[in-house]
Amino acid sequence: MAEEQSIIRYDPDTTGVDAPPSSTPGALCDNNVSDNVANGQITDMSEEASAVLEYLLNVSFRGAAMIPVSNSRIVQKRFSTLLELRILQDFTLKCQSLPGAEWKIHVAILIAGSQALQEESLHKVKQGLKFVEELSLECHPMLINRYKAFMYTGSYHLNKGGKALRFHYVDNLPTDFTPEAWSLKELSYVEFHFNMYNLGEFFRDYDLLTHIRHVLNEKLVLKHDCRPKELSGILDTLYKYSPCRDHDGMLRAVVLAGVFAHQKAWGRTSNDEFARLVSDNQLFNIEWEAIKMKFKKVLATADAAKRQFKKMRVGG
Questions:
Q1: Domain with 95 in it
Q2: Which of 30, 148, 278, 310 lies 20 to 30 Å from 241, alpha-carbon distance?
Q3: Rg of the chain in Å (alpha carbons)
Q4: Which run of H or of E encompasses 174?
Q5: Residue 171 in contact with residue 90, Cβ under 8 Å?
Q6: Would 284 be classed as within a structural domain?
Q7: Any domain includes 1
Q8: For residue 268, what are the contacts with CB-CB under 8 A and spacing of at least 6?
Q9: pTM above 0.90?
Q10: Is residue 6 a contact partner of residue 246, using CB atoms and an 8 Å limit?
């Protein structure tokens, strides 16, 4: 795999936000991966993650629909208006890797989504201190770009081919900026979402984390349209190189359900190829064997239900 590039790193000198307790978040570079991957181990899934995985395994043959997130259309419309008008913005997001790039936002909207910044702002209020007016991160600017869109609309979009190629809603750029130089065309669709997940963990933006899990559920479980090489690459990213902490296992629950969905949809040739490709992914294989034992009855039931479902469709 090519040398990775750091996407997000905390800078304590310019933010005013307390550093996370574990290693600073980093992605796709400098071998700056999560503690789980670096230590060659993974945390146990939380009860909630196990329940989500069990549900997805149970119904994956029909296309598992995760519980939808309900957004108020009125609030969403008003926030979108603020995004388009770009007025009364009182906070600036900056990117150290691209000096001169700035994203103007409303601090109240940023804090509303970030548990980390909520705690920081409350602490400053109690101390009689003023909250910072800007946040500077050493990260790939494309992540900040999509995060700003998510703050106001509850979603973010990629460009042609599921790639992050163009900036949206940026307010200032350096004069020598060229879009091609700052695109993330080398990242796959799923890899980009993994890195946005890392950003959500950093800010502790639980709405963003939930949104990304829904996006990945649609791709991996509902559509299950990956080829063996693509799916094994996703697992390599998640278990070998991922910066995501995923301490509760919610992200892995969705991906593992996607593995099951693909295996049931593939024929023998594709399954054999997949088994060969993931044979050296030690962490995945350890967890996958544990999952198959833990959910043995669920998987057997899902297999039987799938066969019955196919039989009914053929008979109809």
A1: 8-315
A2: 148
A3: 21
A4: none
A5: no
A6: yes
A7: no
A8: none
A9: no
A10: no
